[in-house]
Amino acid sequence: MGANKNKEDKKIIAKNKKAAFEYHIIETYEAGLELKGTEVKSIRNGKVNLKDSYANISKNNEVFIIGMHVSPYEFGNINNVDPLRERKLLLNKREIRNIKDYLTKDGYTLIPLDLHFSKSYVKMSIAVCKGKKLYDKREALKEKAAKRDIDRNFKVSFR
Question: Which residues form the signal peptide (predicted)?
Fold first, then answer.
């Protein structure tokens, strides 16, 4: 029982399903989020969408997530905030410096992969990505279809 306590609980709340298909993932980071109280309650209910969201570094070296939609908490009050507001990501200086080095190169962007709970904290996995070309996407679809066929044949052979 003691061995399980060392393992980090990671319950995924929302996933950016298109990220792996649209981009080559270069390097991933885990960041905390600066949230308001009613946003946390809404996220616990799964009312969050990462589609079309991205991260950016401001002039004073702070990372913000842009375009993440957190629905207003239904039992909230006047403290509910704008669902599309920019939210600050909490990273250390070394990580921000590494990300900034990538983003100065042409074609790189910072994309959220998923939103999850790590212990009781809301965390976000973000990745430095480079956009895929159309032929890369076709290749990914071919590989996915081939893997599905292999799995199907493998399953049939054991019956």
Answer: none
pTM: 0.75
Whether 32 and 89 have beta carbons less than 8 Å apart is answered as yes
Any idea which residue has 């629905």 for tokens?
71
Q: Is residue 142 classed as helix, strand or coil in its secondary structure?
A: helix
Tokens of 4: 């399980």
159 pLDDT band, cuts 50/70/90, is: low
Spell out the residues 6+ positions from residue 27 whose beta carbon is closer than 8 angstroms to its own: 98, 102, 127, 128
List C-alpha distances in Å: 133 to 139, 145, 154. 10, 19, 32
Is residue 96 within 8 Å of 57, Cβ to Cβ?
Answer: yes
Q: Which domains does the chain have, with CATH numbers?
A: 2-132 (2.40.280.10)
CB atoms within 10 A of CB 146: 10
